[in-house]
Amino acid sequence: MKNRYRLAVLLIVIAVCFVGSSISITTWAQPLTHTVQKGDTLWSICGKYYDDPDLWPKLWEMNTFITNPHLLKPGDVLTLLEKEPAKEVPAAETRATKPEPAADEYPKTMGINVSGLTNVETIGFFSKKGIMSLGYIASTREEKVVLSKGDIVYVAFDKDRQVNPGDSFTVCRKSRQALKDSLTGKKIGVVVTFLGKLIIREQVSEDKLKEIKGWLKARAKKDLFEAEIIKSYKEIHIGDPVLAYEPISSCVRPLPISHELTTKIVAVKDLHDLIAQWSVVYLAQGFNNGIRRGNVFEIVKKKGVNAAGKPSFSEMVIGYLLILESREDTATGVVVAAKKEFSVGTFVRNLDWTKAQSVLSILPECTVE
User: Fold this and answer.
1) Which of 41, 44, 100 is nearest to 71 (CA)?
2) pLDDT at 219
3) 75-90 pLDDT, tens digit each
4) How far is residue 59's CA from residue 84's CA, in Å, rounded to a whole number?
5) The pairing of beta strand 280-283 with beta strand 331-338
6) CATH superfamily assigned to domain 31-105
7) Which residue has the higher pLDDT, 242 or 368?
């Protein structure tokens, strides 16, 4: 009888330990990834898992493949913040049992409206590798030297390039000579200027190819498409290359910089000699260096002499720079404030987030889509 009693007690203890272990696993095991659903934002995901939507910049930093934190692609898998105290999300919870909030229930994200400072469609960019063009303007319907909005052109693409009617492309041109570093004199890259925008109408048939002037030599390796120039910012010529059109919003969401960063301005839009307020400038560091669209830098100039005329290495803040676009290894920004004119080679460094918000507070606001 005693043996049976002891056996029963032992079985009860084992059962309690097992249940307790299961409860512990259920309570503490947290999902390490999240699959993006339609309507998800980094803000809503941080609210769901951490009860703190303001953690979204950290989540963005962990998932570097995200280029726009406000436009997530359904199906993408995000790595969650392991170091943050995640709240438990019941496995049985589904969107069917928890209705998706209406669009107007999401908080509005405020940004800086730069449309009054510069036309973001014309900012161009700095490239260390030149232009990797998709095609070029090969000919025109009418014999013109200078092309502009409304003109019909013929664009040549490689035969393996997928091009469809309705596709948009940016017409561009690189600087004739490579730019040189202001200190070392070494070649560092080229400035790519945006000239206009065109839209593909249709592929040119074999019967019409012979009628198009200047098209006989290249047609064996190229396909020709008829296109219309729908926007022109500068003069467009035959031979100008085209890039895929990438829309950019004039509403910029300010973002803090997570680490110390100092770099310098290597070029200015249109290759002007002097830089002033509202100038568009280029940096030789970009996304890989931690620079993001919406970062704010202070523009710093070293003083060569002090008030007594003696040599000095002190620094003076002469303006502020807002990043409009960050590419792999370069970035483009607009000077939102400047005390004086300055030149290429001037240094910029990351600005304290509180001060950055103060600098931007004088600029018009907008709602980030």
Assistant:
1) 41
2) 53
3) 888 888 765 455 555 5
4) 10
5) antiparallel
6) LysM domain (3.10.350.10)
7) 242
The continuous run of DSSP H or E covering 89 comes out as none
pLDDT band of 25, cuts 50, 70, 90: very low
> In the CATH hierarchy, which fold is given to the domain comprising 251-368?
Thrombin, subunit H (2.40.10)
Which DSSP category does 59 fall into? Answer: H
Distance CA 22, CA 29 (A): 10
Q: State the pLDDT confidence band at 19, using cuts at 50, 70 and 90.
A: very low
Please state the domain extents for the chain: 31-105, 124-244, 251-368
Burial pattern 49-83, b for ≥16 Cβ within 10 A else e, equals bbeebebbebbbeebeebeebeebeeeeebebbee
pLDDT at 43: 77
56: three-class secondary structure by DSSP:
helix
pLDDT at 264: 94
More confidently predicted of 327 and 105: 327
> Which string of b and e fits 126-151 if b means at least 16 CB within 10 Å?
bbbeeeebbbbbbbbeeeeeebeeeb
Are the folds of 31-105 and 251-368 the same?
no
Residue 324 to residue 195: CA distance in whole angstroms: 18
Phi, psi of 53 (to 5 degrees): -60, -25
Alpha-carbon gap, residue 175 to 240, rounded angstroms: 12
With 0.85 as the threshold, say if the pTM is over it.
no
Give me the residue label for tokens 């004739």. Answer: 176
